[in-house]
Specification:
- A hairpin with a 2-residue loop joins strand 6 and strand 7.
- Strands 1, 2, 3, 4, 5, 6, 7, 8 and 9 form a 9-stranded antiparallel beta sheet that branches.
- The protein is globular and about 40 Å long.
- The protein contains 4 helices and 9 strands, in the order βααβββββββααβ.
- The chain starts with a strand and ends with a strand.
- It is an alpha+beta fold.
- Helix content is 26%, strand content 43%.
- It has a single domain, classed as Alpha-D-Glucose-1,6-Bisphosphate, Chain A, domain 4.
- Belongs to the AHA1 family.
Length: 148
Amino acid sequence: MSRDLVITHWVDATPDVLWNAYSTPELFHQFFSPEGLSIPLDSVVMEFHVGGRFEFDMVFEESGEVSPNKGIILELEAPHKMVFGEPEFMGGELRSTQTFTADNGRTLIVVTQEGLPEELIDNPEVLEAFRSSFRKLGRVLGVNTENR
């Protein structure tokens, strides 16, 4: 039985604000990639309905190498839950769930990824990559963020 990767992070914004950031290509491309990578706006495809495509390229800034991400939207419960599937992720299938839970004007983001190779689950570099994208989100929105 494989384990899931679970990351939690606080953001000083409401679930509605975060939902908008995750579902608007002009905002999404600015924060979703970790530090050292970028997402060209013209690579983002969001068919924001269950069964719709969700695609983007992550570009490594040092090498220019492109990592395509191609998935489908499996669940949407605005503004609290998004579930995406990538059927061709590293030879397997990835399922990524983002939840946004309000608490006193802040929101707890919980990301759960199922189907990752075991060596990525507790990898400090993978965890830091997620954290750096949350910090970028805070900068894009002009709000504080905090690891949890």
